[in-house]
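Action item from last week, closing it out:
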Amino acid sequence: NIDYVEIATTGTAKDFGDLMNTPGGAASGMSPTRGIIANGIVSPADPYYTSEITVLTIASKGNSVRFGENTWNGGYGDGGSNNTRALFAGGYDQGNARNQQKISVVTIASEGNAINFGDLHIGKGWNWGAGTQTRGFFGGGNAFPSQTHYNQIEYVSMYSGGQAIDFGDMVVRAYAAAGITNAHGGLGGY
C-alpha cells in the first residue's frame, strides 16, 4: 500500500494506491510532481532483490508504474533528489554479494534506466540520503555482515558526477537512519 497525509492538516493517513511490486528496503527520491522508488528486497521471489524503479504522480492518487531499472540489483540504500534528478547510493548488491559503493542517477521527468553517476568512498548498506537543489548527501550506514557502523557524511554535486566528497561526521555512528534537508521533495533550499 501507498498511504498519504495532507501535510497542512492533522489526521489519519489515507490510501493513495499500491506499489507495482512490494519491495522492502527501497530507496526513494521526488520532485514536486513525481515520486520515484528504486530497488528493494522482494523475497520470497528469486532473485530476492530487484533493480526495478517505479514512479507515481503525486497530484493524482493511483498505483506506481514502471520507470526503468537501476544499475544494480539490491536494497537497503537510499536516495537524494532535487526537482530534476534522483540519486541512489549504497545498499546491499545481490549481484556482487557485497555492499554497494556506486551512485546512480535518473532524470525524474523522463522514464528510463538509471546510469552511473559516481562512487561513495566505501561500499555500505543502510545509509541515509537527502538532497538540495545543488547537492546530494549520503551518510551513516553499515558494513554488513559485520557490525561496523559509519558516521561519515558525503556529498556530490547534483549536476556533475564523480567521487563523493567528505562533508563531515555525524555525532554518532548509525545505520538505518533518515536524512532530511530544507529542500525535501525538490522544494526550496539551496
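Closing note: The mean pLDDT is 89.
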